[in-house]
Design brief:
Strand order of the largest sheet: 1-2-3-4-6
Number of domains: 1
CATH topology: 2-enoyl-CoA Hydratase, Chain A, domain 1
Number of helices: 8
Distance between the termini: 73 Å
């Protein structure tokens, strides 16, 4: 059998490289952005690059100006969440969580913190405490983690510290205490009353 030509081999390599780069440009598990009027909903897992896509959505000249960021995410990477939070604060946007139908947990709480108005609606009747991630709704906090930390069955102090840094930057230092109330494999859910009392939320309706 004859060996493939150099050109054929280069062509195959180019296709593989293009596919790899395409995968980097559009991660399969990135946040999903859905616009409805002046509301932008962020749902799914937070990954690197989401902060750039979020800025593009805000800067889209052909769309209505975004006023409210609605959240439904179990978390993900802390660094892009922090950059999204900073963009929200710089644009003076409102963040919103529907405690009856959606979740905002882990790194998503960093995004929620960015809102100049932070609304935690339908949350007055939610029970409070550590709970399973399965079918979770509401606002949930836990200790930070990383793949290596989870494999060793313990939390990542560095990740927790980074989340706490963002809480302080956004003016909700009380969230620091909540981050230590549940291990990485659970969420500590707070009620609307607690969110208001601690300043984490500015309103519940």
């Amino acid at each position: 059998m004859s060996n493939p030509s150099i050109g054929a081999r280069l062509g195959t390599a180019a296709l593989a490289t293009s596919a790899f780069l395409a995968g980097l440009a559009a991660p399969s598990h990135a946040l999903e952005f859905t616009k409805s009027g002046t509301t932008l909903t962020l749902s799914g897992r937070i990954v690197d690059g989401d902060e750039l896509r979020f800025k593009e959505m805000l800067d889209d000249p052909g769309a209505p100006t975004i006023a409210t960021v609605r959240l439904d995410s179990g978390g993900g990477k802390i660094a892009p969440a922090g950059e999204i939070s900073r963009l929200i604060r710089a644009r003076r946007l409102t963040t919103l969580i529907d405690g009856a139908r959606a979740k905002c947990a882990s790194a998503c709480t960093v995004i929620f913190a960015g809102g100049t108005q932070r609304l935690y609606i339908n949350a007055d009747m939610l029970s409070e405490g550590p709970m399973s991630k399965s079918n979770f709704v509401g606002l949930g906090f836990h200790e930070g983690n990383s793949p290596l930390a989870l494999a060793a069955n313990h939390y990542s102090g560095q990740a927790t510290a980074k989340m706490v840094d963002y809480y302080y930057e956004m003016g909700i230092p009380s969230a620091k205490n909540l981050a230590s109330k549940a291990p990485p494999e659970q969420y500590y859910r707070i009620s609307g009353r607690t969110a208001l009392a601690t300043g984490i939320a500015t309103g519940t309706r």
